[in-house]
Amino acid sequence: MLNDTILAVLLGTATLAQAQTGPAPTVSVQPPIVLNTGPCLDSVRAVPQVLQAPMVRATQIVRIDKVVSTATMTSGETIGFLYTLQDGTTWLGQRTPPYISPADASAINGVLASLHMPDATTTAFPPKTRFGVKTNFLQFFRIQIPPTAPDALRITIDPCVAWPSGTQLPDPSM
């Protein structure tokens, strides 16, 4: 015990009263949680990734909802995803390419055409090209959803995954 006290004084870690005689508490650093499991595996982003540049907290995804068709030919099928960001905006995206069918693409384009922001000129998910060559860049479009829109568009918006409330988001630059 005397040797421990001398060592603590030499290292500058001594305290006036040592009430704790057991081992020092350990501090564990947990890696950031990435919620990319469960029913959203075919979404192109996960919670709490950044949806698109810039890499700031405001652009981190805090919630993903499935856009599910209620139309006859695609009833019950996920046709796209809604991404809610930390700043409160909502963005529409397609499923990952292996999972989207022509019927899904047509249905999600109908949703985008009806819900796009008034200042947006793009109302569909066309393939992005550069000099005439398809690039397959992911596209996300900001939308607003009026309360009556899901019934009129023959869709439902089902919860998929969300960042736990009260838990701080990790630094997006890491």
Keywords:
two-stranded antiparallel ribbon; 3 helices; alpha+beta; 17% helix; 174 residues; single chain; 21% strand; disordered N terminus
Radius of gyration: 24 Å
Q: List segments where confidence is low: pLDDT < 50 over at least 5 consecutive residues.
A: 1-20, 24-31
Distance between the termini: 43 Å
Strand order of the largest sheet: 6-3-2-1-7
Query: How helical, in percent, are the residues?
Result: 10-25%
Biggest β-sheet description: 5 strands, antiparallel
Helix/strand order: HEEEHEEEHE
In terms of DSSP E residues, the strand content is: 15-25%
Number of helices: 3
Rounded mean pLDDT score: 79
Helix/strand-derived class? alpha+beta
In one word, what is the shape? globular
What is the count of β-strands? 7
Helices, strands, pairings?
Layout: H1 2-11, E1 61-69, E2 78-85, E3 90-94, H2 102-115, E4 129-130, E5 133-134, E6 141-143, H3 149-153, E7 155-162
Antiparallel strand pairs: 1-2, 1-7, 2-3, 3-6, 4-5
Any overview of this molecule?
The strands form 2 sheets. A 5-stranded antiparallel beta sheet has the order 6-3-2-1-7. Strands 4-5 form a two-stranded antiparallel sheet. It has 3 helices and 7 strands. It is α+β, with helices and mostly antiparallel strands and 174 residues long. 17% of the residues lie in helices and 21% in strands. The longest helix is centred in the middle third of the chain and has 14 residues, at 102-115. 19% of the residues are buried. The two termini are 43 Å apart. Residues 1-20 and 24-31 have low confidence and may be disordered.
